[in-house]
Amino acid sequence: xxxxxxxxxxxxxxxxxxxxxxxxxxxxxxxxxxxxxxxxxxxxxxxxxxxxxxxxxxxxxxxxxxxxxxxxxxxxxxxxxxxxxxxxxxxxxxxxxxxxxxxxxxxxxxxxxxxxxxxxxxxxxxxxxxxxxxxxxxxxxxxxxxxxxxxxxxxxxxxxxxxxxxxxxxxxxxxxxxxxxxxxxxxxxxxxxxxxxxxxxxxxxxxxxxxxxxxxxxxxxxxxxxxxxxxxxxxxxxxxxxxxxxxxxxxxxxxxxxxxxxxxxxxxxxxxxxxxxxxxxxxxxxxxxxxxxxxxxxxxxxxxxxxxxxxxxxxx
Length: 316
Hints:
The protein is of the alpha/beta class. Helices cover 33% and strands 28% of the residues.
């Protein structure tokens, strides 16, 4: 099975089949289908109003689709379904009781599962939340970032097989975002399927292995992140003599530009393999110590995909 794709043929930890949802006159989601496999971190991407949160709510039974279906771990989803006990969810966040402490709120939320306290992954969840002594203070005195960390703790403390997180990094500082990224990567390494929605595209590019891109409720594309980003035609080389190297490569067919930047040779050569660049330099007596091909940024790819998707619909 190829995770985080359309038309998957086998059961997957997270699966959406032709999901559609309308609110009044607004079509929030239309015929959306994708899967997320075990051990994958899949980013659900789209502009504001694309239907991401509506999709996530249907995936965990908080909203019923008008048509289509959602399943978790191969089982149909509905509100209160037993399969949801293995799902960590952060969508809108739970309604904390302000006059209770953070710890008491977590215990209250856990009591709804009918399982004995403490949750199996409480220690790891609290370590990530990093609330320290604040965990025993009333939630009404929490900052936005502290509330967000408590929300993350409630999602992670059940040792989930599936995580569905809507904008989990909101309100977190850079160090906390990095800690969250490392924790999610560790969970994925254990086989947890993660679906995460975020507008922080640079962070998503470091985290996600796969992506689903949607716009105006419809699927634009889905697949492994590397395939969605593709490779640019720009290379960065380190050579013994960058000025001579630039002159050599400017004369090579297929090379559009060759310039030096901060001691590196930057070459724009779409369609030219890196080995041809190296061979040309070595043939002219220029030693090459390193070469790498730049990939597109997720922001660049995202804007291109969503713009193209909108243009395709307008042309119909």
